[in-house]
Structure formats: structure tokens, C-alpha cells
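Morning F.,

Quick status update on the modeling queue. The single chain you submitted on Monday has been processed. Sequence for confirmation:
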Amino acid sequence: MTRHILTGPPGAGKTVILRGLERAGLAVVEEAATDVIAWAQANGDDAPWERPDFTDTILDLQQQRAARAPAGPVIFDRSPVCTLALARFLGRVPLPGLQAAAEAARERYDPRVFFVEGLPTIINTAARRITLEDARRFGALHRQVYAELGFDLIDVPPASARDRVARVLAILPSAASAPGTSAPGPCG
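C-alpha cells below.
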């Protein structure tokens, strides 16, 4: 399987790792939730996560991006399984489409998921407004939902960005040594 998921709690450093993987020549697909929040906030909705269709909007964007993803090794920053975890975290009953998309993810993505472990602090942004305690709880919920759906989590522990990228690349040796790619440069 050439579609790989990178997940973990908010503020764990997934985006920095994604940039390093991109610099190493891998195709990446950005997280949908951050873009859904940014678009809503730019249009005057300061807290789009309070909208009842929030997770459905995220799922729609994730599916659009997945459909446009190139062939070959691709790293996805989150997946429909993460959106299912988000729905649960927000205390919402997931609609059947979200549940089905999360269950189908096992057939669409590599069953080994890179779980970026949280850092000792969190830096909030306009799109990320969460306490460190809630981020840890949300990360644990991600672990639980992925396990329920039969995925194997590969931990990416706190370390320098370079070391975290190297850990992921070591699991993806064919992607890391593909023609035209190079080792990641300075990141982080």
C-alpha cells in the first residue's frame, strides 16, 4: 500500500514532519480540518467546530484531496479515521457516511499508521485552541479509534524534527530512496 497516514494529537509537530517528508521527495496531502477552520474564520465564523456539519465538511475535503492524490507513495496528514475521532471528541454521533469512510480507510491506506507523539507543551493558533490536557486526551482517542478499526500504530516519539523524519523514512525505505529524492535538509 502506498498511501500512509501521519496522525497524533494537536500540536505534536506533524506539520513539521510533513515538510521534512516533502523535502525528501514524498508527495504529501495536507490536513483538511485546519483548512476548513481557516476558511470559516476568514469568512467570519470564529468557531466553526461548533457547527453541526463541521466533521462532514472536513470529511468532504479529505475525500476530495484523496481523490486528487498522485499515484505512488503519499503521506496523508490525517484521515477519515481522525475525523471519526474528532466527532467523538466533540461529543457528536458520527453520521453513517463518516463511519463508513473511517471503516473503508483500512482498505485505502497502509495499515501501519505513523502516530506522532505529543510534545511537552502546545502552542495554540487561531485554528488550534486546545489545552495540553485535552490534546493528550484527543491523542489517546485517536489511538483508540485507529486500534478499533484494525490499524497498527508506529510511534514517532518526541525528538528533533530531523530524527522524526528519519524515523518515518526508515519505515518507508523504497520511498526514501526513490530516484530524484534526497535526504531531508534542515527542518525544525
